[in-house]
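Predict the 3D structure for this chain.
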Amino acid sequence: MKINLKENFDNIKDYFSPKVLGEINDVYVKIAKIKGDELPWHDHKNEDEMFLIIEGSLLMEVEGTEPFIMNEGDLFIVKKGLQHRVSSAKECKIMLIENKSTAHTGDIKSDITKDITDQLK
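Done. Predicted structure below.
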């Protein structure tokens, strides 16, 4: 299945609203645009989460570590159970690889939390 990232990013209108591009076994490949700091601190009790920066820069905050900037081409895996959040002063485009069971903002519900049905549209 051929997927054009530029076209798919162009179709994303809302920040912090991941969209599923495809699936590999029990894993979703998602993309999202990040701008601002609305994402709450959260964790995923049973799942790791992979972040790949496609364009722009992202501030990654993970419990137990100093906050750090991720730039285009950087990849980071947040291990299950670790509190984390991301933000960006300017628009940042990311790819996420997550188990299908991974809830957008873990057990935390906020104004930006998206159900998987929203992510599949």
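The helical segments are 5-10, 116-119.
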